[in-house]
């Protein structure tokens, strides 16, 4: 697997993207398009929130007909959620306008939105924006900007692998937390690849990968109404169609996992108000799901997050979160290390000189917490960020 | 039911309390005693955290022998948790010293601790403190202070009811979040009553009451290792023994519920860094447990909490938390009112003048969020506080 630093969402063969300012936000780009010049196998996962944004309803409808799509239309600045029947009609109108522009069947188009909840969409501006989007652009940058809100950086990854003698590219882009009108940390992730892959298998693979990547990050524990991760695979690379029995399937799995994991870490590191990226690795669990749950509880604990903002290696809070994760553990056999410094062994404190041993590693931007349960052989990882004054400031501010 | 503003934990007949400075904290009182001059039916509930403080092990051992006790010994300033075999031995030593001093069987004594995790207890100071405690004091104040840490106020409630022609007193005291060495928001609650009541029934009643009071508050979602609520009922009021068939049982239930609910609200209002008390009432649910879960998710959401700190009626965040609570709801039938101002009706925004209608109620200290699901007839309430800069400051500070 080769990491392509110069690559982006429009690097896989046959993918084109654009983004521009339609007027939903004051100045920044707020509408984006991904277009594949041939039909692409498409799979998507959505928020588990019972309140789902109108675009999710429309995307689900498109993918219910068949797993083939050729375009994604996305806007930022308005989530189009809790907007009643008009909201659903607006999302269908976005799909119809995009399909007409690109001369595609309507169910070859998917829709995503992120932004403020409960405010009707300014549909004329959106339709005007769709009309102006250029489906022949292939630099990727406009699209990457159009999905951002107050994210401090573009979150993009691109890798290539060789399959059946062909170069296959897998690229992804995500937006994380932080909005001009902060409402919630909507996560949107879009992955393009020119791999040829079976549709049902792509769906399965996406779900497996998401469980260990996007679903393992938390900024504040609040699951948005508009979360969506979507992958389009258009087969333009010319490899033999990927399925469970393909001899090089592990390479593709690894590439997809790498893209999702890197995007997840970028989202966590750019969480609202974040000053640190925190990674929690849980080992020695009876089941992978146990390990992932504990890792996520630790990285999601306000007390743990605030401690690391204060550069305090307060492992009592880590122990506490492990204990309330809801997974049976043995409270006498837990080891904890913070960025390589063991602070707890068999659930008893290790005598260290905090100022000498621990303080230096706590000053780093990246913090790793290793938890060994000594129960079994399964492992899991989660990512998050610290809890800062800035987080409170961003989210206590008025929407206007 | 009469509210007794002058009453306290030592007001029920036959109860005596004391508290003093043993030297675990720098200056403040840190050891306390509740003593009943006759054996009291005793019930307790403990943290669900897999890591339990050593005192919980000892209290469970005392109550495993019989449900009768006569004394509770409690220290603040050290949680005696993750302190290995020495920690367990220390907690047993606290019990033994208290029993010897009061000439009681050891299993007539229960033990509680709150404070920093993973630091060995200074047992000589604790034993010295126990020796100095005065079991003839009945003003309640020393004890109430001894369990506090950085709590800004004593949390105490006292009520009386008439049962079988006798005055029965129910009193309670609690400590909440905030410590000199902030580690977690340990909750301790102690309730005394001179009611005569069957032991097994008292246990059942405590569990029922806790589900709708203490278990419905959250400051930061972190369940401590040392949480404990304990009730002692010594029968000195002379009423007929309370059981499920007692003709006035509803009065006693109401008194116990009132005491627990008031203590819960006091703990929530005094959460670390809190500037507001937030109450969430969910109605129209299919089950009480559903309503309670949704209420607790809303009041526990960082985004909701930060919004109210900023006096922003950002109901999109309330909707979001309702939707991810894990309880099936109908996303088209939800009403939301904030302190009496309806902002959402059948899941669609109500047009209001925010500055005129909403801003004034958001400036109040007490905020009430009413959520009507329109699914059934069950209800539930939860209490919490806002998320402020001060919360981050308290919890980002070094332990020393």
TrEMBL record, chains A, B:
What reaction does this enzyme carry out catalytically?
A: N(2)-acetyl-L-ornithine + L-glutamate = N-acetyl-L-glutamate + L-ornithine; L-glutamate + acetyl-CoA = N-acetyl-L-glutamate + CoA + H(+)
Residues bound to substrate are: 149, 175, 186, 272, 395, 400
Q: Which UniProt keywords apply?
A: Acyltransferase, Amino-acid biosynthesis, Arginine biosynthesis, Autocatalytic cleavage, Cytoplasm, Multifunctional enzyme, Transferase
Does this entry carry the keyword Transferase?
yes
Main location per the UniProt record = cytoplasm
Q: Where is this site: Cleavage?
A: 185-186
Pfam families in the record: ArgJ
Q: In which pathway does it act?
A: Amino-acid biosynthesis; L-arginine biosynthesis; L-ornithine and N-acetyl-L-glutamate from L-glutamate and N(2)-acetyl-L-ornithine (cyclic): step 1/1; Amino-acid biosynthesis; L-arginine biosynthesis; N(2)-acetyl-L-ornithine from L-glutamate: step 1/4
Q: What is its EC number?
A: 2.3.1.35, 2.3.1.1
Q: Which GO cellular component terms, listed alphabetically, does the Swiss-Prot or TrEMBL entry include?
A: cytoplasm
What are the subcellular locations of this protein? Cytoplasm
Recorded superkingdom: Bacteria
Q: Where is the active site?
A: 186 (nucleophile)
List, in alphabetical order, the GO biological process terms annotated in this UniProt record: L-arginine biosynthetic process; ornithine biosynthetic process
Claim: Cytoplasm is one of the keywords in the record: yes
Q: Which HAMAP family match?
A: ArgJ (MF_01106)
What this chain does, per the record?
Answer: Catalyzes two activities which are involved in the cyclic version of arginine biosynthesis: the synthesis of N-acetylglutamate from glutamate and acetyl-CoA as the acetyl donor, and of ornithine by transacetylation between N(2)-acetylornithine and glutamate.
Q: How does this polypeptide assemble, per the annotation?
A: Heterotetramer of two alpha and two beta chains.
Regarding protein family, the annotation reads: Belongs to the ArgJ family.
Name of the protein in question: Arginine biosynthesis bifunctional protein ArgJ
Which species?
Answer: Brochothrix campestris FSL F6-1037
């Amino acid at each position: 697997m080769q990491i392509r630093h110069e690559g982006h969402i429009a690097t896989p063969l046959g993918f084109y993207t654009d983004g521009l300012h339609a007027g939903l936000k004051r100045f920044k780009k707020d509408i984006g398009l991904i277009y594949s010049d041939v039909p692409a196998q498409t799979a998507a996962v959505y928020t588990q929130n019972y309140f789902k944004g109108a675009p999710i309803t429309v995307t689900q409808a498109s993918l219910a007909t068949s797993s083939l799509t050729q375009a994604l239309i996305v806007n930022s600045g308005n989530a189009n959620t809790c907007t009643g029947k008009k909201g659903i009609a607006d999302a269908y109108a976005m799909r119809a306008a995009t399909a007409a522009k690109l001369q595609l069947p309507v169910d070859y188009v998917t829709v995503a939105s992120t932004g403020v909840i409960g405010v009707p969409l300014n549909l004329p501006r959106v339709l005007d924006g769709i009309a102006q989007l250029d489906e022949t652009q292939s630099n990727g940058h406009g699209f990457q900007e159009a999905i951002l809100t107050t994210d401090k950086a573009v979150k993009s990854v691109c890798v290539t692998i060789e399959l059946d003698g062909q170069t296959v590219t897998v690229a992804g882009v995500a937006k994380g937390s932080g909005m001009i009108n902060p409402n919630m940390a909507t996560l949107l992730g879009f992955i393009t690849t020119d791999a040829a892959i079976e549709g049902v298998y792509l769906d399965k693979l996406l779900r497996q990968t998401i469980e260990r990547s996007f679903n393992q990050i938390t900024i504040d524990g609040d699951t948005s109404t508009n979360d969506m991760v979507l992958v389009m695979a258009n087969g333009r690379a010319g490899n033999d169609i990927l399925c469970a029995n393909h001899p090089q399937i592990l390479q593709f799995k690894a590439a997809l996992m790498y893209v999702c994991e890197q995007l997840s870490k970028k989202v966590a590191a750019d969480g609202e108000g974040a000053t640190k990226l925190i990674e929690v690795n849980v080992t020695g669990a009876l089941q992978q799901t146990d390990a992932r749950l504990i890792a996520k509880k630790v990285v999601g604990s306000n007390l743990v997050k605030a401690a690391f903002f204060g550069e305090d290696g307060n492992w009592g809070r880590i122990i506490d979160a492990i204990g309330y994760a809801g997974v049976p553990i043995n409270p006498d056999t837990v080891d904890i290390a913070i960025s390589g410094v063991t602070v707890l062994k068999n659930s008893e404190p290790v005598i260290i000189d905090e100022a000498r041993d621990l303080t230096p590693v706590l000053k780093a931007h990246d913090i790793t917490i290793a938890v060994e349960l000594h129960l079994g052989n399964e492992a899991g990882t989660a990512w998050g960020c610290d809890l800062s004054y800035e987080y409170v400031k961003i989210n206590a501010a008025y929407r206007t």
